[in-house]
Write a structure and sequence with these properties.
mainly alpha; 79% helix; single chain
């Protein structure tokens, strides 16, 4: 009965995905009208990839998954941070889910050919579990990678603020300090900052506008605050050297706090293995004596 329910559920999901792929739902009229009157958004600063065999394999499943609202807004921001396109992510989810669905069935077929049958119930349950795990695994990986990159970006931004403050103290202008400071650093974070300033130069926009856009795309509010401070210096003539120093100190303090929190969490995770090791040692010491006492009764 369970096998029949699982096969029926799989067939229903497959037919539903096929129907959504062949006849995608139409957007409501209000959405179409809003698109006509919406202000065009600037092109993204963070580059995304779109190649690879994963996308070619999972391409038929991109539209059905996008039609149901995947991925959500938070995950789209994480994808922008990691530099992965939405289409590539959906194709990867579909490919891993399909692989997890077919792998236990292929193993069962090999066992049947080898005349070693374990029934179709276990492979069916394993197929569902592996397919669900393969479908969720890319989301977990993207969230972890995005959080790691945001932490790296905040660390680099602290150094960038210190460089800007030094250049401003040496008499450089705001634009010159921004461009000269970003040319010194290396790594992914400084590469994104250079791309933002290059975008501002090509589009003839102000540097703080593209920096604010980059902070929004990466979901790093410290960069948005930096853009606001530089905007005050560029438009109102405000002195921002002290505020930049305060922001750099706040970023360093946050990084230290996060590092201490991670160290304490790792210490707490190590408590259970230590307790289990201590319990095993007590059993190893006390078992001979307990066995002798019980054997003498």
């Amino acid at each position: 009965m369970i096998s029949g329910l699982l096969w029926g559920a799989g067939l229903g999901v497959g037919l539903w995905a096929l129907a959504v792929y062949l006849f995608p739902p139409r957007p409501p009229l209000r959405t179409l009208v809003d698109r006509l009157h919406a202000t065009p958004t600037p092109p993204p600063i963070v580059a995304t990839d779109s190649d690879g065999w994963v996308r070619r394999v999972g391409k038929p499943f991109i539209k059905p998954l996008a039609a149901v609202g995947l991925p959500n807004r938070k995950l789209r921001n994480d994808l922008a941070v990691t530099g992965k396109s939405v289409e590539h992510h959906l194709a990867e989810k579909a490919t891993l889910a399909l692989t997890g669905l077919l792998l236990p069935l292929l193993m069962q077929l090999l066992l049947v050919v080898a005349d070693v049958s374990v029934g179709w119930g276990v492979p069916a349950v394993a197929s569902v579990i592996f397919a669900l795990g393969g479908f969720l695994l890319p989301d977990i990986a993207v969230r972890q990678e995005a959080e790691r990159r945001r932490s790296t970006f905040r660390h680099a931004l602290s150094a960038y603020l210190n460089l800007i403050r030094v250049l401003l103290a040496g008499g450089a202008g705001v634009d010159g300090a921004l461009s000269d400071a970003v040319s010194i650093g290396r790594g992914w974070a400084f590469q994104q900052l250079r791309r933002a300033l290059l975008t501002a130069h090509i589009t003839r926009a102000t540097p703080w506008t593209t920096l604010g856009q980059l902070g929004t795309e990466l979901n790093v509010h410290q960069l948005s605050e930096l853009a606001a401070s530089v905007s005050l210096a560029g438009t109102e003539g405000a002195r921002v050297r002290a505020s930049l120093a305060a922001k750099a100190a706040a970023l360093r303090m946050r990084e230290l706090t996060d590092a201490e929190g991670e160290a304490q969490a790792a210490t707490e995770r190590m408590s259970l293995p230590v307790v289990m090791l201590f319990g095993g040692f007590l059993v190893f010491i006390g078992f001979p004596a307990l066995a002798s006492v019980l054997g003498g009764l």
